[in-house]
Design a protein that fits this description.
Distance between the termini: 48 Å
Largest sheet: 3 strands, mixed
Number of domains: 2
CATH topology of the largest domain: Arc Repressor Mutant, subunit A
Helix content: 40-55%
Number of strands: 5
Strand content: 5-15%
Bound molecules: zinc ion, manganese (II) ion
Shape: flat
Oligomer: single chain
Length: 144
Amino acid sequence: MTAIEILKKLKEKGVRFTPQRQAILEFLLGTDTHPTAEEIYHHVKAKFPGVSLGTIYNTLNMLKEHGHIMELSYGDMCSRFDGNPKNHYHVACTDCGRIVDLHSPLLDLEQEVGEKTGFLVQGHRLEFYGVCPECSTHKRAKMN
Ligand code: ZN
Ligand code: MN
């Protein structure tokens, strides 16, 4: 969905949108870096110096509750936010924390899991982690 479509849907539900909130949404839809709330704050602040971190969190929570964005949590690391709310896989770098989209189809396991366990399976999560190309280059450089 585009920002305009999301704004329209939320307006129908009576959600008020300020230019700041719109900037948060547009930034998230236009990036695949999975930014933290702090990073979103710094980006939006450049255009709207009056924006508060509270506005960032309120807006992210609202967008999440309505299913337009995803929050990715990784243990005690800061949450990351994803403008693509459809299930997809990520690879996380254990050195620098970078999170990259994996453009692969979802594993077709839910029916099998349902059959084996008797659960009505509604979804699944799968996380990959390792060292990103930049970090492994740095590591190699340090060893030489
Ligand atoms: Zn890395
Ligand atoms: Mn993603």
